[in-house]
Amino acid sequence: MVPYLLGIGGMPGWESGHPNITDHQAFAQTPYNVPHSLVLFAGVLVLLSVTAIRWWWVVAPWGLHILIDIPIHSLALFPTPFLWPVSDFRIDGVGWDHPAVWVVDVTLLLAAYALWLHSKFRHSRGST
Length: 128
Description:
- By secondary structure, this protein is mostly helical.
- The chain is built from 5 helices and no strands.
- The termini are far apart.
């Protein structure tokens, strides 16, 4: 959204609905491609293994995020470039703006928040 506000030319607009990330110039696509690449994620895991740093669990949510994004991003709206920079192959999943995906997402977020609040409330009352 910021490039539109700054008047950077050549960027797609919202006139025909959601702009597709592949319609953006390369400099705008790279910040999206890097954190959504299983190739780069695997490289970081290998680097952590080689350096004997046992913090793989810190980056594990990154890999889980990519795996979740693959089936819930359609080709029409931010398809997940999980093989970038090796390949441009992307899967046409159900869009995350689809009601079935959105309802499940919001329900899981609300359930996680409710569990967190419940845990916080129990600990504040001194019970375990």
